[in-house]
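Table 4 source record.
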Amino acid sequence: MAATPDLYVKEVRTSLRNNSGAFGYSVMITCSLAMLSAQHSSPNPLQIMLFALGAVLSFLVVEAVATNVFRRSLGGEEKTKVVALGSSIGVLSVGVALGATAAAGAWLPVTAAWLVGSFAASTTYLLLNAVEMAIARRVEETRRLA
């Protein structure tokens, strides 16, 4: 049986809902790796591991703060419209995070830049993405009132 256009559109929405947050982060962290590579040439294996460690540590720190040292839930009841709009305005969080990477690459010794650059980029992205989601929530609340 052939898929109908309505079904296809529904599945595109599902794909967007399930991937929107990861998409922005993936673009940002990939470009951060490219930024540091452009500034310092290709990383060696230790620098790659430090880059990964910095990105992972940023999630640890932000999640620890957001959950009161893992004693509260992260929630997850955000409305789809808010997530869609918040993700759509992700250019701010991605752009500023890349700036944080570039700054680390410019100001720190090479090996330290791989750790700090990914940590700074990831932390910046997470915190600014929260601002974007708050803006999206306000827009959605305003739409409902109109």
